[in-house]
Structures are given as structure tokens and as C-alpha cells.
Amino acid sequence: MTDTVVAAPPPAAPSPAARARPVTARRRRPSWVIVVCFVIVAVVVVMVVFGSVIAPQNPNAQNPLNALAKPGGAHWLGTDSLGRDVFSRLIAGARTAFIGPLVIAGASMLVGNLLGLWAGYRGGRVDTVIMRWVDLMWSVPGLLVIIVVSGTLGGGYWLAVGLLVILTIPFDTRVVRAAALEQAPRPYVEAARTLGVPGWRIMVWHIWPNVSPVAVANAFLNFAGSLTALAGLSFLGLGVAPGTPDWGLMLSEGLQDLFVNPVAVLAPGALIVLTATSMNLIGDWLQERLSSRGATR
Amino acid sequence: MNDPLLDVRDLRVSRRSPSGADTLVSSVSLTLRAGETIGIVGESGSGKSMTAKAITGLLPPGITASGEVRYGGRNLLTLREREWRGIRGREIGLILQDPFTMLNPVLRCGTIISESLPRAGAPGTAAGRAQRRAEAVRRLAEVGIADPAVADRYPFQLSGGMRQRVAIAAALARDPRVLIADEPSTALDASTQQDILALIKRVQQARGMGLVLITHDLRVAFAMCDRIYVLYAGSLLETAPAGELEAEPLHPYSHGLLLSEPPADHRVRDLVSIPGSVPAPDLVAGSCPFAPRCRWAAAACEQGAPPLIDLALAEVPLPGVAPGRLSACLRLPDIRDDMVALREQAGQDAVAAPPGRSAAPLIQVSDLRKVFRQGSRTVTALDGVSVEVGEGESVGLVGESGSGKTTLARVLAGLESASSGQVTIDGVPAADWGKLAGKDRRRLRGTIQIVFQDPYSSLNPMHTIGAALGEAIAIRDPAAKNVSGQVAELLQSVGLPAGYARRRPATLSGGERQRVAIARALAVRPRVLICDEPVSALDVSVQAQILNLLAAIRADRGIGYLFITHDLSIVRQISDYLYVMHHGRVVESGPTDRVLASPADPYTIKLLDSVPRPEADWLAGSEALSQGRAAS
Amino acid sequence: MTGRGWAWFIGRRLLALVVLLVVISFVVFSLQYLAPGSVIDTLLGTNPRTPQEVQYLTNEYHLNDSFWEQYWIWATQAVRFNFGNSIQTSLPVTTEISERLPTSLFLGVYAYILTMVLGVGGGLIAALRRQRLLDRGIVAASMVALSTPAFVSGVFLIWLFGIEVHLFPVSGPGSGFFGDLAHLTLPAVALALTGMSFLVKHTRAAVIGVLDQDYLTFARARGLSPARVLLVYALRNALIPIVTMSGLILSYVIVGAVLVEDTFSLPGIGQLLVQSATAKDLPMLQGVAMLVATIIIVANLLADIAYMIADPRIRLGQGAS
Question: How far is A274 from A22, CA to CA, in rounded Å?
């Protein structure tokens, strides 16, 4: 179905509506890059769910005599400073790398979207309050706050997750609010109001689908960001408990022995980067797909 | 000096696309002499803007042009970018359409002009700066801006008309010999439009330039141009001297375009419209581009694109036609008389509307005031407005931007509340819907509905047409059965096939989307419909379709209209009673025919005068006034 | 904007700054009550709990006074840059901080400059060569860099330049300006990567947005030189949204500094922050937190001023005269 008309510029309007471009709704197959991203994420999910089954060795089994072995033989990626199998620890570490960010991105998306829709559509005093709070959080470097609070309260993985949820909600709120603000004055929203459609239905059924591209992309961005943040906290010793298989912790553990078995350090780092990049790219791709569905100008 | 200044031959513009190349302009040839004004007339998608950009070498990336653009003995299309800089601005100037985006927002107006000036005075020295500023002020005076302080202002501090004048001064800074004006007045109010066009004409004559005027409004072309080129879907369909084209168009498209523009001086019985909408050039490549919409199309029209031929010099010359008239219609000898007859018939007066107003008005507004507060500023949008709309009556509301007409519409539709005054709709006090009981609000919603101006955002892009209409139906009757059947009925009542229910708005044309918006408003069976500029954003050939649809709906269902527009010709065709608004007040009211035939208020007179007429005095009349208005 | 207008604006913002600092100071001060265990235990740290110690600490920190009195005492001291002594080292907090500050400052400024120059430059080049190979390459690289936290890139750089290719020293701060430069290059690069990629993405989008604008086409139509079109028309307008982001960039740099200093064993403020957090060294923590908060707030204020200077519409208010 091709669109065949582009609008004439409206006469005597102070700023004419942007000219529409002809729309060709062609379903294009995702590029190979996106496919690779999906594969990577799928592999990580498999590691999370089936980790204990597929790991060749016990990730926590220490063997000091075989410490810092190079890759080869029974240990595909060698061993770390306590003789533990790096490969198995990588697989086990997927759990902390995936579940926390999933909770954070999901919870933040839920609350942030609701707040953002409310602030953007209803406006008024509620909006002012929400915006002040968002602006305040915007200028605060979240990780530092977590370091300070986490340190004071003794650290811990789920504490960090909880704090990150609180710190990520403002970002979702801001993005969704901006998008909702763009939609709210549009005639289709006003037409719904004149018809008598109730406010909640306008927000959820009318506005949100048009906001969903940026909201979804932002959720994936938050996932990637939380992943690196949690890994960073573990790296500093403020995240998971010592000894837990965790990509960030593995990095700090292996740092002093970088020269002996670099793989023990580079592998978890590479996994962090690969997973985060894949989620970012998937988020961008989803945004494009969702907004081309509505295919406006 | 009869050599043409600009000679375009067989210009083709196409866009690279995954499937090969999309044609944007298939073959345009035109000539321009010094002191001459030619008009390129076309609707959206005709390729007129691309032609202008091709001539100045400013095509966007991915779009290429071929053919010849001869200027000064060279083919401009073969120039390299470095060589273009000697042509652009210095030989050929270009003015774009939207004055609100044409000027760099971070530069002062004086700078915008002086940066385009040829190097005058030593740069960087105080004397050089003073010299350049003096020159900029002089140029501003040339375009009718007498106040030198404007040179120190930023564009956002000026009105649309002032910005356009600054843009014209900047475009003329290097004294080009040819000026291309791409819809220079479309984004402005009617009265400002007249001023700007008059200014361009005056400047052209004073400098002896050639002018290429691109517009979608045939009436403007008649008033301004010596010769007109009619462009449709990338092809030239007719070329003629302006006066002869106005007297008798010799192509069904020009004919239809002319008839689609309603006259302002009387109400016609039938508004002739062209069915369908403008296609992409590639879709009509192997035939006459207008054939799918032409009422006289025959089999021969589909077998290859008809060539553009000089009617007087053809094998079988058309009688009574001077050389210089070109047309791309095969059937002209057969249909010529039909076209003339149709034009006569369409020009006949409508049956006079019954005078007098109904005793029991459905909508009653009395002394309505609406004040907006923006930070520290207060804006009075409505300043004591009183209007009435009777049951089944069609009332027109005319005003330019800032007159308050849209605010009034929004208050009536419940989107805003009044600051003071009374509004009564069907007996229910409606000044502030928030204070009403739910039952009353529902009653109001079932009484009054609104159709908005921009069809491209009146429909939710993510919902199918069926879902949008279904929602409206469910609002009226939550227990409705056979919703899809009712949706199909609604679609048919606005002239759309039932299958459209499955489609999304992005796949519909502007006219079709507006039909859906009307259907949605009708779903709740209102007794009065507010139409806020419902056709301003549509192509001319589609406007008449929608106006006819609205008239038919009114005849069918007895719905009343409050028809809001800035266009006097349109309001003449569709309304019985008229209110004229200016700066938040009603300055004149009365039966439409009487107000437009003998206006009393000076503002109404000025508004009537701003409607483009194909006479030379239309421009001359405003020139004397334009100097005075320039400072406002 | 007039001189008086500027004075009003800055005055109001400074007032807001002070209020914000007070609020933050209050939160920071309350931290010692959030920590698990009694305040005394926290202040003792690893020292043995003897009655003399308890008495001494109670007097020193006025623990018998009410909460507000304690806060007041602390706040008045803090304004005079006296945060007490570190629990870990027993040295004055201010001394420790000022010892570590130069390293962090150098690192921060170095990284910030790298971020801005390479970020804006990269985004500009990508936008100008849109859809061509260079653009795709820059976009892809910045996508990966965006997902690479500073400590991962730091480790990678250490491995690359410390082991494989001996180009830069991999730990410690060095001495003298050029020593600093050499030693802090790798950390600065690791630090700059995240912010740089963020900036590339947004600069590219901003410039592309500007390139499509009518005023650019109109400028070219008047025959203006390509240099002027690029600088005064494209870049100047594209920088407006970017200036507003400079505050956020600073946040990235500060956050990254913490991770990077740990990776490269640099004795800076970031490392101090982490150490004092894990060791619950409250006076030190409070001092560092206040310092960082002040830096961020001042930087945001500067960014807002820059935004006002850059965009005349903000400066002079919307609307026709």
C-alpha cells in the first residue's frame, strides 16, 4: 500500500505543517548485525537458565595448585588465581549480569512510563513536581550516590539493584514525558477528548503506542547501562559478595595477574561489552521497527 | 534583447531508491526573459520545488537532475560545486517558502543581509562594519522596512511578513538577474500575502529581473505572471500566457484546477471537484498522468504519455488559438466545447439561501472572554464575543491567525474553558465543562463535535481506521452490536470503501484522512459540527471534494456547521450566515451574501481585497499601503 | 540581556546552588545514622572499644547533643573546610583531599578535553559523511564504546599497551607535567570513551538535524562560502543542544574517574571515595561527597550560562517585539 498524496502547505497558517513524504511500508529483513545481537543475547539467556547444567566444572571449586593456568586442556579459558575454571565462572556469572538489569529495566520502565505519561498528558502541578525531581536526579551521577550509600550500608547485590531502580526511573520518566508532551497537543488526542474518551484510556491506548518506540529503546538502553553499572560496582567490591561468580568481580580479581593469564580478565570484559552492545543495538532496531509501523512524516 | 535569460530544456529529476530510480520530474522545459514573470503552478507532488532546486543546484543528496539548464551560455547542470558559487546569489536568487525556518536563528537580521553582500569596506575595521550596516539598512528599506532598528533584531523577534521581507533582501543582496520565488507567500496571512507579492513584483520591475514564481494558487499566478506553466505529477501539461489561460484553459487538469477554486464574488450552485488524488509520477508513467482522474479520458490517453505540443502549429491546428499555447491533451478538439459548457454551468449562481435565522439557536455565545497566561504575559484571545448557531444552520467564522477563531472553536468543543461570559449549547450552560455533571457532559458531546485542520495528525497513526471509528461508536453506545457493520456504513457515508477499516492512516492520502476524521465526528450523531479549517491543509483539487461532501452531509442529516476559515471564497460557498473576527472580537456579522457583497467594517473590506484576483490592480492597490504596513 | 538581567539570573542560580548544597550536606551528614550499628561503632572503625575511646569520641563528635545541634556544628565546620580527621588514617580530611586532588583534576580535565574534541569532531565528521563508510564506521565504533564501561576499557588498554605494545606506562601518576601526561593518557582515554561516544551520537544527530534545515539551503542559495555555511550555520546551531549536555558529560567523567583510578592504581579522589565508602570512614566520605557535589552543581550552572549565551531565543525570550 503506497501513499499517493503529499499535503499542500496550508495557506495563512503561521508555520505550515511539515510536508508528508510518500510512505512505502516494506517489510525489510533485519540486517545480519541484528541477528548476531539476538544470538548473543540468546546465548546469555541460555547461560542464565541452564548455567548449572552446561558448565563443565564447578565454578566455585578451588584448586590452588593449578592457579593461573593458561587456556587449554580441561580448562578452556584457563584458571584464575584460586585455580577456579574461568569458563565455568563465566557461565555462572551470566546470572548476576542478566537478572539484576532485567529487574531494573523492567521496574523502571513500568513506573517511569506511568509517571511520564501522567506528567506529559495531565500537566499542571503534578508535572511540575515530577519535573523538578527528574531534573535533580538528572544532574546527580548515580553511580557515586550508590557508592556512598552502598558503602555506608555494607554493599550487596540486591541493595545495588534497588538503588539503581530508584535512580533509573527518572530517566525513563523524562524520556516518556517528552514524547508524551509531543503527542498530547495533537489533534487525534484532542479528538479523543472531545469524543469523551476517559483520560486513562487516552494515555494508555492512544498516547502510549505512539510513545512506545522511544520508551522501548530506552528500556534496552537502561538494561545495558545497568549491566555495566552493576559490573562496575562489583569491580569496586560494592556489589556481589566476594567469591560469587560475577563478570565485574572477575575483572578486579584477575587484574593483578593480568600478565599471567590475561584471558581470565579479558573474557568477562568482552562478555560485558558484547551483551551491553547487543542490547543497545536491539533497542535501536526495535525503535525503528515500532515507529515505522505508525509511519508518520 | 530577446534571448532568453534562462532556458530550461527537458529537465528530468529522479531519486535513487532501492528499486531503481523514482521519477520526480519527468520533462520540464521553460524559458525566461529579462523583466518577464513566469509561473510554475502545481499541487503537492507536482515536482515544482524540485525544479527550482535543480535550477539552482541545491538538490538534496540522492536526487539527481539531467537535461539542460542554459544560463549565460552554459549548461548549469554540468557545473561543479565550486563553479555554482558564482551563480547562486549572484546570478540566480532563490527565496524559499517558510519565513519561519529560512533565517538563521542565531544571527541578527542585519548580519544575515550583510553576510550576503559582496565585499564592501575593509572587513574587521569599524569603518567597514559601519559601511556594511548602512548598506544592510538601505536594503531593508528597499523591501519596505523603514525602521533601521530591525537590523539589530533576531528573526524570532519579527512577524512572518517581516521575516519574509528580510529574506527577500538577503536573496537580492548580490543583485541577481533571475529570482526564483518558491511559494513565497503561502505561509503568511492573506493580507500579508498580498503585500509580499506586491513587493516582489515592485522589486522585480525596479531591477529588471526575470522572476520565476512557484505557487499552487492559480489566482495568484494570474495576478502576477506573464506566462504560466502547469505542472502535474512531474509533467508539464499546459503552457500559456496568463490571460489566455484564465480565459480558456486548454487542458482538463488546468480546467479542473480553475473550477476547484471557488470564486469569492458569488455562490455557485455546484462546486466542481476532481475525483481522486495526485499520484506519484512513476505510477502514471506510461500514460497521460491525469488520465486516471479525467472525466474525458479515453483509451488513447492510456497508450503512452501525450507530448506537449503547440496547439496553433500542430498538424491539425486548434482554431482560434494563438501560437505559444502548448498543451499535452490528445482529446482537446473533441472536448473543448464540453469544457467551456461545464465552466459556464459551474459558474451559475446558486439558489439564494433563505434569509432570516431560526428562532431557537442551538449554540448561544454571549460576551465570551478568554485570557491565557504565559508566564508573565497575558494574551486575550477572545474579547467579548457573541455568536449564535441555529439548528441545521451553516455559519461561517472568518478571521486570520490570531483572530481568536480557533480559541472559540476549542471553547465550544470543551477543550478550553471560558474566562468569563456565557455559552449555552442545547440549553446546557457550557462555559466550563469541568463544572458539569457527567450526564450533561455526555449530552454535550453527543450534540457538538469538531473536525480539525491537519489531517495528518487528526488520526492516531498507530490505530487502524476501523479501531478509531469503532471507539467512537462505542462511546455513543457502549452496548453497540455489529460494530464493524456500523463502521462500514460510516465509511461509505463519507465516500470511502468499507475495506479501509483495516488500513492505517499512513497509507491514506490527506483527503481520505480528512474523510475519516469527519466520519469519526459523525459517529456520535452530533447536531452541529465545528469545522476548524478542514480543507486548508489539502490540495486544491481535493478541497472541493471535501466541501461537496460536507454540503451533502448537511443536506442528508440536517446537521448545522460552524465553519471556521481564513478563506473568503470557501466560506462564501458553504455558509449562510457569517461572522468576521479580528483580534478577538467580532467586527462584522450578517447573512454571508450581504456581508461579502457590501462589507461595512474596514477590516472586512481589507480581507476581501486580499483575495487574489487576476487583475493587475490587485497588486497595485496594496502597494501604496504596503509601505505603511511594513513597519507593523 | 542587560547587565542587570544577568545579575538577577546568576544571583538566583547561586541562591539555588547554596540551597542545594545545604540539602546535600544534610543528607551526607545523616549518613552516619543510616549505617548499621551504632554511631560509636562506626566511628571506632577497627579500634578497640574502650571506655576512654567512647568518652573521647562522644566529646569529639558531640554525640550527646541533639541531632540538629550536631548538624549545626558539623555544617559550620564544613563551611570552613574542616571535616575532621579521617578514621582510617587519623589525618585531617582536608589534607588528604588536597593531596589527591591534583591527580584527579589533571585526569578529569584531560579526559574532558578528549571527550569534547573527539566527541564533537567525530560526530561532525560522521554527519558530514552521512551514510558513507566513514560515518558507518564511526557510528559502529561509538556504539561499542558506549557499551564499554571505563574499567573494562581501562583493563583492555592496560593489556594492549602494557603487555602487547609497550607504549604508555600503565600505573601510577608520574611526576611533572609530561610525566603526568604520559602516565595519565591511558586512564584519560579509558575515561573519555563512554562520554565521547555519547557525544558522537548526539552531535551527529544534531548536525544532521541542522543540515536538513531551510536556513542552510537558503544560505547556500545565496552563495555563501562553504566554510561559513559549515561554521556559522551548521555547527553554531547544532552546538546549542550539545551545550546543554555538557553537564551530563561531566557526570560521566566523574563517575568514570572512580572506576579508572581503581583500575590504574591512581591515588586520586575517586579511589579515596571508594576506600572511605568501603571502610565506612564517615568524615572522609562526607568531605569527598561535598566536594564532588559542589563541582557538579557549579559545572551545571556554567553549562546553563553557556546555553543562554549560545541561544538568543532563550536569552531574549520568545515572541515578537
Answer: 38
CA of B605 to nearest chain C CA: how many angstroms apart?
Answer: 27
Q: How many helices (H) and strands (E) does chain A have?
A: 10, 0
The stretch A227-239 carries a mean pLDDT of 90
Cβ-based contacts of A9 with chain B (< 8 Å) = 44, 97-98, 183, 186-187, 216, 537
Q: Kindly determine whether residue B104 and residue C215, on different chains, have CB atoms separated by under 8 Å.
A: yes
**CB–CB contact C144 A151 (8 Å):** no
Low-confidence ranges of chain B (pLDDT < 50): 1, 121, 624, 626-632
Q: What is the mean pLDDT of residues C113-122?
A: 91
More confident of the two residues B381 and C313: B381
Query: Taking the domains of chain A in order of start, what are their residue ranges?
Result: 86-293
Pairwise pLDDT comparison (B377 vs A224), residue with the higher score: A224
Report ipTM for this prediction.
0.85
Cell numbers linked to A287: 525503535
- For residue A229, list chain C residues with Cβ-Cβ distance below 8 A: 149
Average pLDDT over residues A124-145: 83
Find chain A residues with C-beta within 8 A of B442's C-beta: 196
How close, in Å, is residue C178 to chain A by CA atoms?
Answer: 26
Give the CATH class of B6-232: alpha beta
Cross-chain residue pair B401–A12, CB shorter than 8 Å: yes
Mutation for B interface: C215, C315, C321, most B CBs within 10 A: C215
Q: Which residue has the cell 499546459?
A: B238
Best probe of the B interface among C8, C222, C307, by most B CBs < 10 A, is: C222
Which positions in chain A touch B186 (Cβ < 8 Å)? 9, 11, 16
φ/ψ of C50, rounded to 5, equals: -115, 155
pLDDT tens, residue by residue, C129-176: 887 888 888 988 999 999 999 889 988 888 888 776 666 666 666 666
Dihedral pair phi/psi, residue C105, rounded to 5° = -60, -45
Quick one: cell of B497? 470503501
> Is-contact B65 A25, C-beta < 8 A?
no
Kindly list the partner chains of chain A, i.e. chains with 3 or more CB atom pairs below 8 Å.
Answer: B, C
For chain C, positions 23-62, list CB contacts with chain A under 8 A. Answer: 28, 31-32, 34-36
The answer to whether residue A13 scores a pLDDT higher than 50 is no
The length of chain B in residues reads: 632
Distance CA B50, CA B64 (A): 10
| Short-list C172, C259, C145, CA closest to A251 | C259
pLDDT at A27 over 60: no
- The helix/strand/coil state of B106 is coil
Q: For B101, which of C213, C318, C321 is closest by C-beta distance?
A: C213
pTM over 0.90: no
Fold identical between B6-232 and B353-447+526-592? yes
Closest CA to C295 of C8, C21, C5, C16: C21
Q: Selecting from 2.40.50.140, 1.20.1440.20, 1.10.3720.10, 2.40.400.10, what CATH number does the domain A86-293 have?
A: 1.10.3720.10
Contact A139 C247 (CB under 8 A): yes
Mutate one of A19, A228, A271 to test the C interface: name it (highest C CB count within 10 A).
A228
* Residue ranges of domains in chain B: 6-232, 248-347, 353-447+526-592, 463-522
Interchain CB contact of C255 with A (< 8 Å): yes
Partners for C (CB, 8 Å, 3+ pairs)?
A, B
- Say if A21 is an interface residue toward chain B (CB within 8 Å): no
Rounded-to-5 percentages of helix, strand, coil across chain C: 80, 0, 20
CATH pick for B353-447+526-592 out of 3.40.50.300, 2.130.10.10, 3.30.70.660, 2.60.410.10: 3.40.50.300
| pLDDT for the residue numbered A295 | 60
